[in-house]
Amino acid sequence: MKIIAGNWKMNGTRTTLSEMVSALQSVESENTVVLCVPYTMLGIDGGRISLGAQDVSRHTHGAFTGEVSASMIADTGAKYVIVGHSERRQYHNETNSIVREKAAAALANGLIPIICVGETMDEKQAGKTMAVIESGVRESVPNDVNTDIIIAYEPRWAIGAGLTPTEAEIAEAHTLIAKTLAEMGLGGTPVLYGASVKGSNAAEIMSIPNVDGVLVGGASLKPDDFIPIITSVK
Ligand code: PEP
Known about the structure:
Blueprint: E1 3-7, H1 14-25, E2 32-36, E3 49-53, H2 70-75, E4 80-83, H3 86-91, H4 96-108, E5 112-117, H5 121-125, H6 129-140, E6 150-153, H7 167-183, E7 191-194, H8 202-206, E8 213-216, H9 223-230
Helix pairs in contact: 4-6, 6-7
Bound molecules: phosphoenolpyruvate.
């Protein structure tokens, strides 16, 4: 069983989400299906899809105009929240330490954080990929985790670019993440791969050791693109 998570980013409407829910109702798969959607779409009945948010405030409540707290997200019935997505790190200057605070806020409210780590093209070219991944995991995961978390390895240079690392690169990254998590006492934590996943490459990617599922951006927006990913593996 794999975890197939979608990230709608700033796309979609409540109507298109309802259409996705209906389309997935008849899909036979034992995989866990998650869709992380804009806040405005939370609260609808996701059917066999578990819903999640794409970001969360690190604050609990109060004078933080425009922010949404973990308890508010949980109040909608959502179960997941992405933290530290590369677009948050890039456009909102989120560091590992901010990501850790957000993950802790999610955990404190019963949400499962999907904690994203990954290297930029500059870091890749400088030979820093493994160091960035390891510090991303060590510094973005809260200290006192005793419940479910998910890690997503997303090479930042490949997101939305139609590019994917080689199978060997994905395997090396996921092996390092699994080893790092084990050293942190978090062995068995699911690790997703994300960046340019589509129906035609999903099965191959999910056959790589230590890849427990995928985080899908563009190809999660339409049933015709998302369903083949969900059904590509048992
Ligand atoms: C993402 O934004 O998390 C992502 C993986 O995007 P895409 O699949 O479009 O590369």
